[in-house]
Structures are given as C-alpha cells and as structure tokens.
Design brief:
It contains ten helices and no strands. It is mostly helical. The protein starts with 14 loop residues before the first helix and ends with a helix.
C-alpha cells in the first residue's frame, strides 16, 4: 500500500467551506441528505457541481479524521481554533504534509533559517519520500508542482509561513482549546508536529 498520495493537491484548508461541511456532518446526514445539501442546497456555493463534489469529498475525508467535538469547534469556533483544527485534520489526512513539516520545516527551524527554499526543499523532500514509497517517483511534474503550491498555501493559512511569497517561517502558538482537544483525543503525534517550534 502507498505511504503517500497526492490528494492534498485538490485544495488548501478551505476554511469557510470546511465550516459548512463540519456543520453538515454534525447532523450525521444520510447519503441522500449529503447529496441534497451539496447539489440542491449548494452548501459550498460553487458554480460547478463537479468542483463542489471534489472539494466536499476532500474536506469530508479530512474532517473524518476528527470527531464531533472537533466538528463543533470548526463549525462555530473562533477563526484561530477553526484554522488550527483544520490544520490538524490536514496533517492526519496527508502524510506528505506531516512529513514535510517534520522533516523540512522543523529542519529549517533547528538550523535557525528564516525562510524555506521551496523548489529545492520540495525536490529533495520528494526524492526522500520516493525512497519510502516508490509510487512518488510516478507523480507527474504538474502534480508535484500543484502539491507544493497547496502545501505552501496550507502553511501560510495556518500561520506557519508569513506568506506564500516570502515563505518566512512564523510558527504559531497553538490555541489552548486545540492543545486540549489533541491531548484529550490522544493525538500526540499531531500535536508534536504542530508544536514544531517548541
């Protein structure tokens, strides 16, 4: 079985959309209700049904790594709490993001470097990933580029980077509610990945 997949390339944290999907999941919809919310109610407010379906599937796959407590915090919590819990879901769902944070981002922090070198870092990182999972070598050039673009956007949205342009490292302090949730749910690996600066 593959260690890595390219699913992250389908979208960054998508905060407003994720809040809506979290609210929907709290109602534990049937297959029909889920379909109705996406297609008839257009809960994601997308022009294209295909885009809505693709984004909803990715968001749901991420949110399914958490539980009702997290969904409630994501749906109605403060922006910082929502963002950091979505980051936790993203890390749980995407091994490539988790390993990039642990191997590359943390490495830069340890060496007291202030910026990522996106292209160089990504190429070296993917070469290492291919050692663990030969399928990575088969990702197309376009897919690899799109993945890097989304990973950087996720890091910027979650405040780990100043912006995707400057790529300056700005590791955030985690909100106490997020730390509490991760500890109570035994998500210590995710917590340590997110508290990378400690």
């Amino acid at each position: 079985m593959s260690v890595y997949n390219a699913e992250i390339s389908a979208g960054s944290l998508m905060i407003p959309e994720s809040r809506r999907i979290a609210k929907l999941l709290l109602a534990h919809p049937t297959k029909e209700q889920w379909f109705e919310a996406l297609k008839l109610d257009n809960v994601l407010q997308k022009k294209s049904p295909a885009t809505a379906r693709r984004q909803a599937r990715l968001i749901r796959n991420r949110l399914d790594t958490l539980n009702d407590t997290a969904w409630a915090l994501i749906a109605d919590g403060a922006q910082e709490v929502t963002t950091q819990l979505l980051m936790a879901a993203c890390i749980k769902h995407s091994r490539i993001l988790a390993d990039f944070m642990r191997d590359v981002y943390a490495g830069h922090l340890r060496r007291l470097e202030q910026h990522l070198s996106p292209s160089k870092d990504w190429e070296t990182f993917l070469a290492e990933c291919a050692q663990r999972d030969p399928d990575v070598a088969n990702f197309s050039v376009t897919t690899k580029a799109k993945m890097l673009q989304v990973v950087l956007r996720v890091l910027a949205e979650a405040k780990y980077l100043d912006s995707t342009r400057t790529v300056r490292l700005t590791p955030p302090h985690l909100h106490p509610a997020v730390v509490r949730f991760l500890k109570q749910n035994d998500e210590l690996a995710v917590l340590s990945t997110m508290e990378i600066s400690r």
